[in-house]
Amino acid sequence: MKIVIVGGGFGGVKAALELSENAHYQITVVSKDKSFQYYPTLFSTATGHSHRESWVPLEHIFRNKRNIEVVYDTITKVEPEEKYVKGESGEIYRYHNLILALGSVTTYFGIPGLNTYSYGIKSESEIRALQKHLFKEMEDGKDDESHYVIIGGGATGVELAGALGTYVRTLRKHFGIRKKSVRINLVEAAPRLLPRMSKATSKSAARRLRQLGVHVETNRRVEKQTAHAIVVNGKPIKSQTVIWTSGVANPPFYEANKEHFELDKRGKVIVDEYMLALPHVYVIGDNAATPYAGLAQTALHDAIFVAKHIKGGTMSYRAIDPPCIVPIGKNWSLFEWKWLHFSGWSANVLRHAADIIGYNDVLPFGRAIGAWRARSVAELRIPDSFSQSD
Ligand SMILES: Cc1cc2nc3c(=O)[nH]c(=O)nc-3n(C[C@H](O)[C@H](O)[C@H](O)COP(=O)(O)OP(=O)(O)OC[C@H]3O[C@@H](n4cnc5c(N)ncnc54)[C@H](O)[C@@H]3O)c2cc1C
Question: Hey, which of 98, 299, 327, 355 would disulfide with 333, CB 3.0 to 4.6 Å?
Fold first, then answer.
């Protein structure tokens, strides 16, 4: 049986590994990127920790899997009647079963200027651009107050806000810049931080960030950005460094192939109880309209479910509500799962355990430990390429 999996992320990699146990399956993983990206540590890599914690080449992951072929291409078209997908290269990939796990893309909700002037941390290229900018600022030897604005009070914005101050101060020391303060604003449009979590957890996050010197501003809407300022609730804030952590959407692939897919109002693909969007076409992870889409654990859960279904399983899909652990600053995290929430050092230990399990979902245990340990390595330089260097 020929199985084509589009996407080399959490969902795609896990599905390929699960299916590879059956030697009769010929699996082709088509990915536009050469590496698996471990999103939960991007904030940490962006703030000066080793790139090895965030990227693992797909060829390393599948090295010992004889029935998995990895192809680098961007899929643009699906023809479900004829059972093939087509890549930008012009290549056609035929399948008996297709799994689509394309992840998300950044959206700026049409806010003028953000696309041009803001920085991001959702990919290698975004992180490189941000770090280049910060290094340039240091090389120029600026010793006046530096003002950083992070937009988005979700987990990514909160994690980044907790780590950015330390990183900027370390860079300043490294470049011999001694004077003046670092100001970090975290701007959120909703009335509280971490709007998907409980009120108590939001309060703890805001308190912790304030202790770390972050200026938390909720109920603030970004209106536009120019080269030197960001306009929030009608007021310009002078800043050379605005980091957009908000806004993710389904990739344009689904809109471009909309004659085949039914999309919900968020643009996510409606799937049946077996995660099928069309006969023989599964849609999983961030792309599927399921209750907890948008989390790595959900993508992994979907991948395991779909692999079982392809192998002949008959159970229906059940969404699971995964625990959330948000690190804020050194050795401190927030934990929340259903009614249970706590914070501090113990939550941070759980976060480390969750990361080891997360790496081990796609890597053998020894290599998972290696990726996890990489975070203790500081990286005060910008490598030529994060994802390809070993
Ligand atoms: C900054 C950040 C931090 C996060 N932190 C956490 C966290 O701490 N915990 C958590 O649970 N979740 C976290 N998430 C969410 C989590 O990363 C996603 O939910 C998860 O990656 C979704 O898995 P996926 O397989 O659907 O997509 P992805 O893992 O994004 O994989 C998508 C893959 O598809 C490939 N691709 C895309 N389009 C094409 C195409 N047209 N053709 C070929 N290949 C294509 C991409 O190259 C990529 O390999 C975070 C997300 C972000 C942005």
Answer: 327
